[in-house]
Amino acid sequence: MEKDMTKGSPMKLILGFAVPLLFGLLFQQFYSMVDAVIVGQYLGVDALAAVGATGSVNFLIIGFCMGVCNGFAIPIAQEFGAGHEVNLRKYVANGVWLSVLFSVVMTVAVVALCRPILQIMRTPSNIIDGSYDYIVIIFAGIPVVFLYNMTAAIIRSLGDSRTPVVFLVMAAILNIFLDLLLIIVFPMGVAGAAAATVASQAIAGLCCLVYMCRKYTILRISRDEWKWNRDFVSKLCNMGIPMGLQYSITAIGSVILQSAVNSIGSDAVAAVTAANKLAMLIMCPFDAMGSTMATYGGQNVGAGKLDRVDQGLKSCSLLGLVYSLVAVVIVYLAADKMLLLFLDAGETAILGDAIKFLRISVLFYFPLALVNIVRFLIQGMGFSKLAVFAGAFEMLARGLAGFMLVPYFGFTAVCFANPLAWIFADIFLIPAFFHVRKVMAGILDGQKGQQEHVEEAAADTL
Q1: Distance set, CA 382 to CA 145, 208, 249, 405, 422 (Å)
Q2: pLDDT digits (tens, 9 = 90+) for 388-424
Q3: Mean pLDDT along residues 135-150
Q4: Quick one: angle between helices 142-157 and 55-82, nearest 10?
Q5: 356: buried, middle or exposed (CB in 10 Å: 19+, 13-18, 0-12)?
Q6: Could you state, in order of their start, the residue ranges of all structural domains in the chain?
Q7: Which helix (H) or strand (E) holds 383?
Q8: Residue in 31, 75, 58 with CA at minimum distance from that of residue 302
Q9: Does residue 123 sit in helix, strand or coil?
Q10: Would you put residue 286 in left (φ > 0), alpha (ψ -120 to 50) or beta?
Q11: pLDDT for 16-37, tens place per residue?
Q12: 314: number of CA atoms within 13 Å, CB side?
C-alpha cells in the first residue's frame, strides 16, 4: 500500500514507517544470530571465527550493493512525492537495467578476488579455508542481493515499509530451516550457512518482485518507458554510486580494523564476532530510523516541504536519544547472558572481551543514531555525494584505530574504534545537513519564483 509522507504528523508517520522496518531488521538479525548460534554450537569456535573474519569484507561488497539500490530509490521517492508518475516509472526501469549490469560485473570480479583479499587481511591460517568457503558463496549470490534490495527499495520509496518485511520474515524462517538442514543433516560446514543465506534471500527477492508487479498499477511500465535513458541513468548513478561508496568506504575502515583484530588472534576474532552479532540486533532501531528518513526526506523534498524535513529530523532524533538510553540498560544488565547464545561459558577470556566490547560501544549509541538519521536524510534530499565524505571520516577513524592504536593498546583500542568512527562522522554530517538545508531552500525558492513569473505572464496575456 502506498503511503504519502508529505502530510500528517511527522512523528506518527516516522513511527508508522519505521516499526515495520524495525520488525524486519530484527528478524533479519535474528536469523543471522541463528546462523552464528548453529555455527558456533555445532561447528565450534574456529568455524564461528571463520565466518566472523569475513564480516568486514562482506559489508564492503554487500554494503555497496545495498547502498546502490537504496540510492536508486531516492529519485523514485522524490518523483512519487512530486506526483510525476511517468518519470517515476522511467527511474524504476533504468534502475533495473543498472542493477543487472552492476550485479554481473561485481559477481565476476569479487568471486575471483576472494582468497587474495582474505590473505591481505591477515586472516589466521587455522580459519582462512573456512572463511573462503563461506564468503565465496555469499559473493556468488550478489545478483540475489540486488534483486531483493532493489525491489524492496522501490516498494519502500512508495511509502510501503511493511510488504518487504513480510517476505523477509518468510525468508528468515526458511533460512533457519536450511541452516539446520545444510549444517546438521548434510554436513556442509560453513558453506551450508552461506548457501542457506543466499537461497532464502532469493526467495524474498522473487516474492517482492511478483508482489510489486501485480499490486502497484503506478509501476506498470510501458515499452517506451523501458528504454535506456542517459539522463535518468546519470541521475540514478549520481544517487546510487555515492551511496554505495559511502557503505564501502566505511567498510574499508572496518576491513583495516578487522585486519588488526585478526593480527591479535582467533580468540579476539571470535569475541568481536559474537559481540557484533548481538550489537547488530540491538542497533536495528537505528537502521530503521535511517531508512525511514531517506524515504521521508525524499518525498517531502519532492513536494517542496522543507519545514516538514526539519520537523522529521527533530522527531527522529528524539526517538534516537530515548532508544540509546534503553540500549545502555539492556547491555549492562543482560549482555553477558545473551552472549552465551554464541559462546560457551567455559570460554571465559573470549566472553570477557565480548562483554567489554559491547559495554564500551553502547555508551556512544546516540552519536550512532545521529549518523544514521542525518546521513540518510541528506541522501533522501538528493545529496548522496556528501555521504561519501561521511564514510571517509568513519574510514579515517577506524584506520587510525587499526594502524596506530591496536598495536599499542590491543583489544581495548578495538572497543573504542567504532565509537571514534561515529563521532568523526557526526563532526561532518551535522554541519553538512545545515548546508544542504540552505542549498535546498534556495533551489525551492527559485522554482517558486519561476512558477510565479510564468503564472503572471500567463495572466497578462488574457
Answers
A1: 24, 25, 19, 36, 22
A2: 788 788 878 888 887 788 888 888 888 898 899 899 9
A3: 91
A4: 30
A5: middle
A6: 10-461
A7: none
A8: 75
A9: coil
A10: alpha
A11: 878 877 877 777 677 666 777 7
A12: 8
User: The C-alpha cell of 224 is what?
Assistant: 517506451
**Distance, CA of 312 to CA of 293 (rounded, Å):** 8
* pTM across the whole model: 0.71
What does R_g of the chain's alpha carbons equal in angstroms?
22
Vertex 276, ends 141 and 363: CA angle to 5°?
140
Q: How many angstroms separate the Cα of 300 from the Cα of each of 236, 252, 304, 355, 436?
A: 19, 33, 6, 42, 14
| Rounded Cα–Cα distance for residues 381 and 306 (Å) | 10
What dihedral angle (degrees, nearest 10) is formed by the CA atoms of 393, 399, 405, 407? 180
Task: List all residues 6 or more positions away from 277 whose beta carbon is below 8 Å from its beta carbon.
Answer: 29, 32, 33, 36, 342
Q: Band of the pLDDT at 323, cuts 50, 70, 90?
A: very high
pLDDT score recorded for residue 447: 63
Phi and psi at residue 72, to the nearest 5°: -60, -30
Closest CA to 123 of 4, 17, 260: 260
Tell me the one-letter amino acid at 16.
G
- The CA–CA distances, whole Å, from 178 to 34, 171, 187, 208, 448 equal 11, 10, 12, 20, 56
Q: How far apart are CA 109 and CA 194, in angstroms?
A: 19
The residue type of 179 is D
Residue 279, all three cell numbers: 550489537
Q: Is the dihedral of CA 265, 266, 268, 269 positive or negative?
A: positive
Does residue 415 contact residue 257 with C-beta atoms inside 8 Å?
A: no
415's CB contacts (< 8 A; 6+ apart) are: 356, 357, 360, 361
Give the DSSP per-residue string, 137-181: HHHHTHHHHHHHHHHHHHHHHTT--SHHHHHHHHHHHHHHHHHII
Q: Residue 199 in contact with residue 54, Cβ under 8 Å?
A: no
> With b meaning 16 or more CB within 10 Å and e meaning fewer, what string describes 237-258?
bbbbbbbbbbbbbbbbbbbbbb
Mean pLDDT confidence for 128-155: 89
Return the C-alpha cell found at 415.
Answer: 572497543
DSSP assignments along 341-377, one per residue: GTS-TT-HHHHHHHHHHHHHHHTTHHHHHHHHHHHHH
- Residue 176 identity (one-letter amino acid): I
Residue of 36, 12, 115 whose CA lies nearest to 338 = 36
